[in-house]
Every structure is written in structure tokens, then in C-alpha cells.
Amino acid sequence: MSLLSTSLTPSPRSRETLVIIQSTLATPSCLPFVHAIISAGLTWRAATIVCVCLLHAPETVLAGMAGEELVRVFDWTGEVPGYGGKEEEEDGRGGLLRKVCKAVDDAPDGPVLLVVDSPDTLCEDVGSPSKAYSILKTWHTAISKRTAPSRIVLPLPSRSSLLPILITPAFSQTLVKLTLHPPSLIHHLSTEYLTLPPPHSPPTKFWPIFTGLATRGEGESLVWGTAGSGWSAEVVVEVVMRSASGKKTVERSLEGWRKNAVCKLEELETLRDVWNRNSGSRQQQSQNTPDPTHNLPFNLSLTEAQQHSRAQVPLPYVHDGRIKPNSSTGDAAIYYDPDSADDIDEDDPDEDLDI
At what angle do helices 129-144 and 94-105 cross, to 10 degrees? Predict the structure, then answer.
């Protein structure tokens, strides 16, 4: 199973309690990935789904799964700070904090999947990233106390002020981070840097270039620039999984997302010309490589009869390790005759030890 499939549908023993889905202006919404995670969560045994809606309607986030028995929805899309009653203004988001924690703690025995549709909206409502961090940390702590594979899912844009502080080990030792990239970024790498994703290129060469371009937001300019390729429904997903089972390990891979399903990069329609061009250049290179044995006045190859005759020739100074019967097996000795330049002491150096 691919790393992306494992991230969306974890095993019952999975210990990654934090899932961050990072999107950009050049990629589609994170909601299809949220739907896939929720659908997988409904297949868990005795699982409870807790959905906190701050930006999108519950029907949009749950995609028709709101009527399930073990689905709890907190719809706070209509609760705008400063426009509510006196009780709402005094309670603030503290009421939501306590209600979600209570829903997680009071859930039946089994895993709990907590989905917060817009942490950035929570950050704007409470007034600072530190307060939003404190609320999310409290929810994550409550999720960590539940049985595996409980997790909290946080969709975030690439420019979110919460992103740098949520991916640190101080927030969660384990992490599954799905970063969405436009396929045009792979196009740009293949044409400008002559570099393709592993295994077509060495990882030590590909990842520094790819990470630098993604961090600078080159994907957005490649899609929406003057010579941009335009928006595509297909997505390149960078998967980073940080686990803490036994020893801390970090896995990374690039995979495709097409028609709301996981696929290989080679299966993306928008990248098909990249692989065709790469395979075509290899074939042309092999065809254009000159044959060093062409037009030689002698033959470098051997026929089967010549190879058989060569194998019958005995090689000199080669034996099978056994001593021949007529070989000498007497005692061996070394005779040394020192010359005038040798420094040899005739006296016994251990004479005083009385040995």
C-alpha cells in the first residue's frame, strides 16, 4: 500500500494522531481528502466522528455522512464574534473548547476522529495564533488519550500563521502532512532542471530543488502567471509521515490524486507528456550512442565454438589447492646470515631476569 493510502486509511495500530492537509492557491480544496479520511473513519470499529464546522456547512464537510449514528457535529458557522448575545460574548470559543473535549471524552469505547474544517477561522475568532494553538493542543491531548487510530485532522492553507507552530514536535510527536502541489511544478522541474521525482532521479538531488521551489510558491506563479498552465483537477501530493514507534522515523513520497482516488504520478494525465518525453529521450540517446566495435579491422566477439575452445585451455600456475604426491613435504627452515650493517646484539636482553 502506498504512503498516501496508508495516511488516508490508517491501520488499527496506527499512532499518528495529527493529520495536516496543506493546500495552495494553485491546488483544489482540501475537502476531497477530508471526505476520504472521514469515509475511512466510519469503517473503524465503534468509531466516533466529531466534526467542528467553523467555515463550511456540515453538509459540505461531511458530504452526506451527517446522519450517521456516531457522528457529532458542532456547527459554529453562524457564531461570529461581536455579533452574538451577551452570553455568547462572555463564553466565546471557550464554550466550543469545552463542548468538543466533552464529546471526545464521553464518546463510546473506540477510536475518535476529530475534524476541524478551518483552524484559520478559529485563529481569527480568538484573536491570536497562540490562543488558537492552545485550543487545538487541548483537543489533540484529548484525542491522544483515545485508542488507536484516533486522530485530529486540520486543513490549512500554505500561508497560514498556524502552520509553522503546528508541525513542530512540541505540538505532536507524530505527524502526517499532506501537501498539495500542482502538476505544473513537476513539468517545470523536468524542463528547467532536468530532474524527475524518485526513482527517476536521485532523492538527494530532487528533494532540495523541489522543496525550494514549493517553499517560494513557484507552483502558484506557474499556474496563475502570464504564461501559466491554468488550474487542474489533478494533484501531486507530497506525503511526509513522522512516526515515533520504537525510533523516530520520517518517510516522504510523491503520489498522485486523480478523480478523488490515489494513483501513481505516472497515471496523471497532465504529466503523461513528461514521462513520454523522458522515455523518448532515453531511447534516442541509446540509438545515438556510437558502437565502439563498429568498423574495426578485427573481431572482438567470439563464437560458441571459440568460447568452448577457450574454456578448455589450462591456465598456468593454477591448482585446486591439493598438494601433488611427488611434491616435497619436508620440514622447512629459515637461514639468515646477517651482514655488517645489521645491528645484532649477541647478549641475552633478559639475562638479569633469571628465567
Answer: 10
Of residues 299, 164, 177, the one with CA closest to residue 237 = 177
Q: What is the pLDDT of residues 114-159, one digit of tens each?
A: 999 999 999 998 889 999 999 999 999 999 999 989 999 999 999 9
Cell representation of residue 30: 482540501
pLDDT in tens, 293-342: 667 777 777 888 888 898 888 877 666 656 666 655 566 777 777 777 77
22 phi/psi in degrees, rounded to 5: -105, 125
pLDDT of residue 90: 44
CA 187 to chain centre: 20
- Report, in angstroms and rounded to the nearest whole number, the Rg of the chain calculated over CA atoms: 34
Is beta strand 235-243 parallel, antiparallel or unpaired with respect to 262-263? unpaired
State how far the Cα of 215 lies from the Cα of 211, in Å rounded to an integer.
Answer: 6
Is residue 61 within 8 A of residue 117, CB to CB? The reply is yes
Sign of the four-CA dihedral 212, 216, 221, 223: positive
- pTM for this one? 0.74
> What share of the chain has pLDDT > 90, as a percent?
39
